[in-house]
Design brief:
By secondary structure, the protein is mainly α. The chain contains three helices and two strands. Helix content is 62%, strand content 4%.
């Protein structure tokens, strides 16, 4: 205990009672190889896999729509019907 600037008793360690309680308490050991940790890791891996599969199918869908639009434009051009270029075709060009 030391005197502070205000001439009051000052504890340099802060809250000693709380720190001593943290040290003395009996808490369960952290086991990283428990079934719960394996389950959480498996959930994260599954979430990432689903996200990648969704992205793959979204890319396939965009490619199919772009191809169908190109074929429709090619089919209609000989008949004198011009279809404005869509955003999908512009995206493919970049």
């Amino acid at each position: 205990m030391f005197f502070s600037r205000e001439n009051e008793l000052h504890d340099l360690a802060g809250d000693d009672a709380y720190r001593s309680w943290l040290i003395s308490r009996n808490q369960a050991p952290i086991v990283h190889h428990s079934g719960e940790m394996h389950w959480k890791r498996l959930q994260i891996l599954a979430r990432h896999a689903v996200r990648h599969v969704k992205g793959f199918f979204a890319a396939i869908r965009v490619a199919l729509v772009a191809d169908k639009m190109r074929r429709a434009q090619r089919h209609l051009e000989p008949h004198g019907i011009r279809v404005p270029k869509s955003r999908i075709n512009d995206r493919r060009a970049t």
